[in-house]
Structures are given as C-alpha cells and as structure tokens.
TrEMBL record:
Signal peptide: none
One Pfam match: PDDEXK_1
Domain PD-(D/E)XK endonuclease-like: 683-969
Organism: Pseudopedobacter saltans (strain ATCC 51119 / DSM 12145 / JCM 21818 / CCUG 39354 / LMG 10337 / NBRC 100064 / NCIMB 13643) (Pedobacter saltans)
Protein name: ATP-dependent nuclease subunit B
Length: 986
C-alpha cells in the first residue's frame, strides 16, 4: 500500500515540477521531512533543489522579530508581576517555590487563551461570576460540585470558605496579570509562542514580510489534524490568498461517520473551516482492505517488551539483509517501555540454535535517551544532594556528609578515582566507623573533591558550580577516551541547558532583585535535568523503527507493533491542570477531555489504516496505574471494521526453583581444616554448631572457606549491633556491682540503675565507633536506639529485682573444654568446644543459672531436642541448642551437673518467663496420659540433657564424616536470612 507521504510527493511533483524549491513544506514535527525528501528523490531521479521544511512553530515564529521566551523567562516575569499585584493589595508575597506550580497552570491557561483567540477580559469576568455563584451552597448542582472539586481538591461542604475567597481574589488578578505579562515580555523583546500565534491570526505580526521568499511557490501543510483557532484562521486566510495548500491524511471510514471521534477535527477542518484537501478525502483503506490484527495479552509492564522477539523474529533476517529498511515500526503507546524495548531487541541475529549469525539488527530510535537513565544523572543528582545537605548546616556548625553519599561519590565511575585510591579512603572510613564524614577530611584531597564538597554560597551560582563540575568530568573522560558517543552528547546537552538556566536566573535575579532560595534553585536544576534527552543514532529511513505514538504522525509501515495499548494510556483519562472550569472551556472552544480522545483516536486509526499487519500488546495486570484492559479504540475497531482479530494470552513461565542436592564434597583440604578442631587450633562455638544444623553449606562458606561479609559503615544501628550494645551494658552494670560485692540485692540494683543511660552511651560508642570514651552528639535515630536499649535494660533489671538475692559468678565469660564423641568409623574423636556465656549466677535457692540475653524473636517453646537438630525439619530452635551448649560447657569447666539454662527473650519474658517449655505426655493419675507443658528444669532438664548430648554426638559425627558432603537444607526457611544464598546453586 502506498504511503501517505509518497502520495504527497507525487502530487507535489505533478503540481510544481522543478519549482518546488520555492515552496515551504510544513509538518507538525520534524521526523516526516526525511521520508518526504526520500520519496521526492525517488520521483525526480536526479539532483533537485529541495523545498524548505518547517515545523508549524518554526514557521509561525518567523512572523515576529521578538525572541520566543523560554519557560524560565516566562516564569520569572510572571512571578515578579504577580507579587507586584499582591503588594498593591497589601498582601504577603509568595516565594518562588510556592508560586512555581501555580505559575505552570497560569502560563498554560494564557497559552491556550492566545492559541484559541479567547478574550481574556471576558473569560475571566465570567469565571469570576461563576465562582461567586458557587459560593452560595444552596445552588450547588452536580456540575458545579464537579467544577469546585477540580479547583479545591480538599473541598468539602461548609469548609474552606477562606480558601475559596483567596481563589476568587486570584481570578480577579488574572486579566490584569495577563496583559501586564505580555507587555512586560515585549519590553524585554520577548514573546510567547501563543502570542505569536494570536498576533499572526489577528494580522498584528511585527514581521509582515516573513513569507516573501515563498511568493513564487506555496506553503504546503502536510498531515495536520487538530488545529487551534489561531491556526484555523491563518490557514483559511492563506488559502483564500492562494498561498497555502493542504494535504490531510483521511479515511472515509471515520471522516464521514459523525460518531467516529477519529474524524472530529478533519470534519471540522474540511466542512466547517473550509480547508481543501489536495488528496481524495473519500478513499477508505480500513473497510476495503481487511487486515490481520494480533492482540497479545501479557501480565506485567516490562513483559510487554519481552515478547517483541516472538512478534518480529521472522522479520529480523529481512531487516538485516534487505537494504530497503523501515517497513516495521515498534510504536510505544506507553513511552516508559523504551528501555525494556531496547534491552529486548538483539544487536545481532541468532540462528535457531542460538548461535550468532553476524548479521546486525539495525535500529532507529528518535525518542531519545533520557538523561535520568544515564550514569551522568546519578553524578549530577548526587552533587545536588550534597550541596543541599551543606546548606542545612548553620555557619557555626561543622559540615559533615553522610557516609552513604561519600561512598556513592567515591564509587561513581565518572568521578575517575583509581581503584587503589578509592579502597584506601573507604578502608579508612570503615575502620574508624565514620558515619558522618567531616568536610575537613575530604577537601584536602583537592580536585574533584573540592568540586563536590565545597559549599557554594550564592544559590544562583549552584547552577554554575554543577556546570563547571560536569565540564571537568567531561574533560577528564575525553582525555581518557572513556566516553561513548551517546554519553558525550548527554554531557554537551546538559552543559548547554545549565548554561541557559544560569543565564536566565542571573538575568532575572539582577534585574528584578529577586531572592532565590537554595532548595528552589536545586529543584529547578532537577526539573531541567529530567527534561533532557538526546536521540540515539540511526537513520529514519533504515532499520527497525522505534518511536512514540506522537512521532508516528504522517508515517506509514507495513507492520505496526503497538506496545502498551492499554485503556487509560490511549486515550488518556486526564487532561492538564487548569484554573478555567470545564463549562467555560466548552463555551470558548478551549481544549477539553473529548478533544484529547479525538486526537488519540485519529493517531491510532491513521497509523494502522495503511498497514498490512498490526500487532498490539497490552498489560492485563490491574494496579493503581493500569486498567488491565486494552484501549477501547481496539475494541471499537474489532466490533466495527470486520478485520481478522487473533488473540494470544502470553504467560511468562514461572518456575519455582527447587533446591537441588547442592553439595560440596569434603576434599582432603577440607578434612585438614576440620582436623584443626581436634588439635585445638580451632574451637567449635555454639553459633557454628547451629549454623551447621540449620544449613550445612553455610557452615562450609563461613567456617571452612572463610567467606565473610565485607566491612562497611553502618549509618543505622543494625539488630546485631543493638544486641551488642545491650550485652555490653549489662556486662558493665553487673561487673561494677560484682567488683564491690558479688551478692546482688534489690536495693543495689535500684541504686545502680541511675547510671544505666551513661553505660548505654559508652557501649553505643564502643560498638559503633570502637571508642567508649568518644564524645557523641546523639541525635535522630541514635536517640531512638538509646531509648530502645534503655527499655530492654529495664525489662532485665525489673525481672532481676524479683529474683534477688542472687550471686554473680561470671559475666561474658569465655570457656573452652574438650568434647569426645564417636565418629562415623566407630573411633573416638576429641574436639574443642567454646562458649561465651552472657551471665552465670547462683540464686538464693541454690540453683546455678546460665542466662542468655536475646533481643530478637526467639521462642521458649520447642517440640523436641531431636527436631531442633533436624537440618531439614521445620521445628529448629537455635536458642535452645545454644543455651544447652553453654550449659554443658560450663558444667564441664566447673565440674557441675545441675546447671539450669535460662533465656531472657526481652520481648516476651514478662509474659512467658525465662525457662524453655515443651509439651509431653504424663500420667493423668487415672491410668491414662495427658499432654502437659513442662518447664526445662529439674528432672525434665536432666532427661533432655541426655538427649541433647546424644543428638550432639550424631551431628558431630556427621560433620566430621568425609562421606557426608555439605548440603543445602531441604527447608528454605532454615536459610532465609543466609548471607550466602547467591553462592548456592539453586
């Protein structure tokens, strides 16, 4: 099927022959010009003088000698004038940050007023009247309620009367502000694009001869659809003057049917305005040439891109081998799918066996790579974050930076530090556990350290500071030849945009004597950076075309793949913010939601009307941002067109990965390491034992291979650190009392409690900074941690007061004893086991207790000792095994028998006590049995100790058995918090 632009080219050559160079060809966007030039070259078959190409805005901008004002020039002008109005009303001034979102809405409204030739005085007068009527709640109709809700999102009956009055005052300012705004811009030799449109439509343009060079030819307008009133008036006038010619891409299917929203604006252009289509408007491609439409329903946003290879796989080879590229287009209805799409399409073709063929898949992407997806954005954002943090310090304060930000700076690839230097600096901070890095530790490094960590005093100079930092980074990267083309283009575009922003800010601050706030300047920079994008390399005529729906205007492809065609995306369900209510927008012909629907409908139908095949992908998952339904345009097309629709439900294969019998065999080298436990070079701790029980392969990684977590600075206190602070505090508390007298009474505990916070702070400094004497200015989360530990200490001491009197025997005592067991070969083997026991005391009843403190979610209840040793079971109780282990070590070291294990689980001890508990069958006294919860003490404790030693023997025999490899537990819950999960073959 012949493309629309080829038809235009043929007609232009037929009409103008060799005089086409006297014509100006005008599009809505730049992309179609390359296609039209290609078709003209094919027709002429010889060198020819090209016509001049414009976008509509470029052409209209030629009608004025004034420079078109950029957004920031408009904003600062509007801000200054608005505050002048407030001064006249004796009202307080708005700061820039407050005014910024309001300004965006006002500027958008002013632009629409000019584009559609609305009388601002009349519009805002009527708007004020509507507001006054709506103030009287007796007259509140559903439509008026909807109007009020649009402006006051927090509106409710009987409330916010003052807020309503403030809006009315603001509306009264609008006509004065509108005229003052345009007059002030004119004094600056500036003009908005909307005002240029209006002046041209009303014949007030200040450059009346701007079309002189095209007098011998014509203005050719190609592919237009929705026109503003200004465009309509200008186009009609130029047509009557025989200056203009129009090419509309139409289809009688939607043009002649008033119910088809896709034809709304074309009907208006042709039937109401009277613009003449140079092509036949009554042709129909939709009805006469049925097409194949494949609809893919997928589950997930990114999954939509992942099935691209399935859809266009057969065309890759043709695209790679055939020089007549460009027949297939991937059109992103949802433009956030760009990166997933680029990541999905292969750079080289593979055969059916997955081997590369050497043929490249050429791509053309003109949507552009967003700055925010680049490593450069990360660097710039970090720089801004650091500057923002610097300005939060008072002049007398020492400036410090979070370790997280400093680490991000040191590790960023564009900073250019050598690996050796980076590791040296990081190691110093980690060793010293510096959570807040002083500025004085960074600035002496000079170079880029100064660029990043030196305070910039004047807010406007922050823009310049970022620009100069990026220039320095760019220079270094170019010198080292490390930059890709796309990265260098991003650098250059970013520096250009920052230059423009700096010039604008500097001008308006100096001229208007306006005070800028640091936070506002940084937010402006961030908004500027987020809007930056540069096109990827590629030819618009070759390769697989990737574009957004807007970019597809005027273009045709044999195969169109539409990604993200969900309802709510096409068409959108919202319209931009405005202070002009819907009722008045309709009266004055300003854009409303239905206009947006009609524009989307036309882009959709026009794109597919000449295609031979259409593939549509939509996301069926429903969430807060997605309807889960395909676009209603698709459903409408299926119902009315008679095309052949094929539906595919693409489900991603989700395989639950099971733990294979992952094994590490016990080699001679491993056995040699295990033998160290027998020689005394190594000792087996309680935590090592429970690690082996829960997941044997973790024992290998930790205690045999010696794979440890890298040291790092913890900016927040982690659970194990909190436990260490508590243990240290309780050790100090009771050691001080023990030094005076090991016999503890209620009165002595109560008296000493006044020092508990001092002890907590000292242990906080010891754990976090390895310096108990450190002077720390506790703040934020640190104070929260102190409060938590203090509460835990109070729980322990409250319980201990009830247990008095008792005698402290040991605090945090380390003990090593030999342990003999029978190995798998029936031989006796002796190893050395170690326990570091939190506390050992002797109660007034003569019971020696092992006390273990737990700040986590450990449980006192257990099923059985056997289950607690079952590697693949679901009833492990590590705390039970550890405490019985400590009990055994102490008994052996001190030649005792009746030592009782106590577990102080701080979260539950007030309710459940401190003794382990298990249900057992006991005699009910009636010749039967009953289940009864037993505390782990007295005779029951002695029985369980025997079972414990029996299970310990078996587990140690397994550990030292060369024929039993280190395996992964069959129960994933037993290693859900393992640091080694990424090392396991799952």
């Amino acid at each position: 099927m012949k493309p629309f632009l080829k038809e235009v080219a043929e007609d232009l050559v037929a009409q103008f022959g060799d005089k086409l160079q006297h014509c100006a060809i005008v599009f809505n966007n730049k992309r179609p010009s390359a296609y039209l030039q290609k078709y003209l070259a094919e027709i002429y078959q010889k060198p020819f003088w090209s016509p001049t190409f414009f976008t509509i805005q470029e052409l209209f901008a030629k009608s004025t000698h004034y420079k078109i004002a950029d957004f920031y020039s408009q904003f600062f002008t509007l801000y200054r004038l608005y505050n002048q109005l407030l001064i006249k009303e004796n009202l307080g001034l708005l700061d820039m940050a407050q005014f910024f979102p309001i300004a965006k809405i006002i500027l958008s409204d002013f632009s629409q007023i000019d584009n559609d030739l609305v009388d601002a005085n009349k519009l805002y007068h009527e708007l004020e009247d509507i507001a006054l009527i709506n103030q009287q709640f007796d007259f509140l109709s559903p439509e008026q309620h909807q109007f009020l809700s649009q402006f006051w999102t927090s509106y409710s009956e009987g409330k916010h009367k003052r807020q309503q009055e403030n809006f009315i005052k603001m509306w009264r300012r609008m006509p004065v502000l509108y005229h003052a705004f345009h007059e002030d811009l004119a004094k600056q030799k500036l003009q908005t694009m909307g005002r240029a449109y209006r002046n041209l439509a009303e014949g007030k343009q200040d450059n009346p001869d701007f079309l002189q060079e095209f007098q011998e030819g014509k203005l050719i307008f190609v592919g237009f659809n929705a026109l503003t009133k200004a465009e309509s008036k200008v186009f009609k006038r130029w047509q009557e003057q025989d200056l203009a010619k129009f090419y509309f891409d139409t289809d009688a299917y939607y043009l002649n049917d008033p119910l088809q929203e896709a034809g709304l604006f074309l009907r208006k252009n042709i039937d109401q305005i009277g613009l003449i289509n140079a092509l036949d408007s009554q042709r129909t491609f939709i009805k006469e040439r049925p097409k194949q439409v494949d609809v893919y329903k997928v589950q997930g946003h990114n999954v939509q891109a992942k099935i691209l290879n399935d859809i266009v796989r057969d065309e890759y080879a043709q695209l790679a081998a055939n020089k007549n590229y460009g027949d297939t287009a991937i059109v992103l209805a949802d433009e956030s799918l760009l990166l997933p799409t680029l990541q999905t399409i292969p750079s080289r073709l593979k055969d059916t066996f997955g081997n590369e063929t050497g043929l490249e898949v050429n791509l053309n992407v003109t949507m552009g790579v967003s700055f925010i997806s680049s490593t450069l954005f990360g660097l710039a954002d970090l720089w801004l974050s650091i500057q923002k943090s610097i300005h939060q310090f008072k002049p007398e304060d020492e400036i410090t930076f979070s370790f997280k930000n400093v680490e991000a700076f040191l590790s960023h690839p564009l900073v250019g530090l050598s690996e050796k230097m980076r590791e040296k600096i990081l190691k110093a901070f980690v060793t010293e556990q510096i959570v807040q890095v002083p500025q004085s530790r960074l600035l002496p490094q000079k170079g880029i350290f100064v660029d990043f960590f030196q305070k910039i005093d004047k807010p406007v100079e922050i823009v310049k500071g970022l620009k100069e930092t990026l220039e320095a980074v760019l220079k270094r990267q170019l010198y080292g030849k490390h930059l890709k083309k796309i990265d260098s283009e991003l650098f250059i575009k970013t520096i250009q945009e920052l230059n423009r922003l700096y010039d604008t800010l500097f001008k308006h601050v100096n001229e208007g004597k306006q005070i800028l706030e640091v936070g506002f300047v940084i937010s402006l920079i961030q908004k500027t950076l987020q809007s930056i994008a540069v096109p990827l390399s590629g030819s618009p005529l070759n390769g697989l075309q990737v574009m957004g729906l807007l970019e597809s205007r005027n273009l045709n492809f044999k195969h169109v793949v539409l990604l993200g065609l969900n309802d709510g995306i096409v068409p959108k369900t919202t319209i931009g913010n405005s202070f002009i209510p819907d009722s008045l927008r309709r009266v004055y012909g300003l854009p409303v939601l239905e206009n947006q629907d009609a524009i989307s409908a036309y882009m959709f139908y026009r794109l597919i009307q000449r295609a031979e095949k259409v593939s549509v992908v939509y996301n069926s998952l429903t969430d807060e941002s997605n309807s889960g339904e395909p676009s209603r345009f698709l459903k409408q097309l299926e119902y009315e067109s008679g095309w052949d629709f094929n539906y595919f439900h693409q489900e991603m294969n989700v395989e639950v990965e099971k733990s294979e019998a992952t094994e590490i065999e016990k080699t001679d080298e491993i056995i040699k390491v295990l033998n160290d436990f027998s020689t005394g070079r190594r000792t087996l701790s309680a935590s090592a034992l429970t690690t082996y029980i829960a997941n044997p392969i973790d024992f290998f990684f930790n205690y045999i291979a010696g794979i440890k977590e890298p040291e790092e600075v913890h900016e927040v206190v982690e659970a194990n650190d909190l436990g260490s602070i508590l243990h240290g505090t309780m050790e100090d508390f009771y050691n001080i009392l023990k030094f005076e007298n090991p016999n503890i009474t209620r009165e002595r505990i109560a008296e000493k409690r006044k020092d508990i916070l001092t002890l907590i702070k000292a242990n906080f400094n010891k754990v976090m900074y390895d310096n108990a004497e450190r002077q720390t200015n506790f703040s934020g989360m640190q104070l929260v941690v102190l409060a938590i530990v203090e509460e835990y200490c109070n729980i322990i001491l409250n319980y201990d007061e009830k247990c008095t009197p008792f005698t402290i025997i040991h605090m945090e005592e380390a003990m090593v004893v030999p342990y003999t067991f029978t190995d798998a070969n029936g031989n006796e083997r002796t190893i050395h086991i170690k326990g570091i026991i939190d506390r050992v005391d002797l109660t007034g009843d003569g019971i020696t207790r092992i006390v273990d403190y737990k700040t986590g979610s450990d449980k006192l209840s257990y099923h059985s000792i056997e289950e607690s040793f079952n590697t693949h079971g679901k009833s492990l109780n590590k705390a039970l095994v550890q405490t019985l282990f400590y009990t055994y070590v102490f008994e052996q070291a001190k030649n005792l028998k009746f030592v009782e294990p106590n577990l102080y689980v701080l979260k539950i001890m007030n309710k459940e006590g401190v003794l382990f508990q298990s249900y057992r069958k006991v005699d009910d006294g009636k010749g039967g049995t009953k289940r009864m919860k037993l505390n782990l003490s007295n005779e029951f404790l002695m029985e369980e100790k025997e079972i414990f030693l029996n299970e310990l023997n078996k587990k140690l025999a397994e550990l030292f058995d060369k024929n039993v490899p280190f395996r992964v537990s069959e129960n994933p819950l037993n290693y859900q918090y393992s640091r080694y999960t990424t090392l396991m073959v799952r």
